[in-house]
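Course assignment 3, question 2. Fill in each field.
Student: A.L.
Task: Predict the tertiary structure for the chain below.
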Amino acid sequence: MDVDLRKLRYFVAVAEELHFGRAADRLHIAQPVLSRQIRSLEDDLGAEVFARDRRGTLLTPAGEQLLEDAVPLLASAEALLRRVKAAAQGTPTLTIGFMPGITVTPATAVFSIRRPGVNVRLLRTSWDNQVEVLLDGRADIGVVRLPIDRRGLQIRPLFREPRVVMLPAGHRLADRASVTVGDLASEHLLQDPDAVPEWRDVALELRERRRPEVPTIHQVEEKLELVASGAGICVLPLSTASFYTRPDVIPLPVEDIGPNEVALAWVASRRSPLVHDFAEAAAETLGGPRTGEQPPER
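Answer field:
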């Protein structure tokens, strides 16, 4: 049996929404059509992937397994199409993903000297999609900030750098030279607590179960706007804080917080010599410890 990728896309939409109506709207198809396609997929698989009852739509164990496998499969299919289309254009192309605050120019300059016939493209990424762009082929290699989901990826460490806390200019701690995680225990963190485990372990809003819902924030600029307005604090790598300087937000070193790790990442199954050559150029030009850097002056 050949797996129908269109049916898999429909399945993933329903699995993520857990609602046939919302999934149909997202896919821009009629709900009865979506229901028929899901039933057809279940017939193909010989297993039910959704349990439907008065409580709503839930994944069955077979559905949970299918979702786990379908997402990377669909991403691989998208990557295949992108790479074939790029190859058909005739000019070799390497697309490099990079996170805010990281300058990749030294690596791209060395790579371009060694591979003068290659078209180098850059793609700015975020915490939400720095792995996704590798899996679906939008980027061939990425300069990523750890931690990430490493499944299916090859990782090559580059450097570590300090992290700082971003506070509004009028904050009670703003005149300090540095702070500890304990000083931040009563603050509201505008990011996933798992991203700052040191804060998570002492945070009063987590201990007292009064943490408000934090909306999804995709860009550094959004975080800093919220910090400046007094909505909370965030923890950023030093290079990111240095890049996004503004007078109403103060970066402070945090004495007992771990550094951010920066690494190269690419799909482990890729055997592209271009990816290998850029990895070597990046290791030569971007690697090395950065633990001694100081936060930007204010």
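Instructor remarks: DSSP finds eleven helices and ten strands in the chain. The beta strands are 50-53, 56-59, 93-98, 119-124, 141-145, 153-161, 163-168, 234-237, 249-253, 260-267.
Grade: pending
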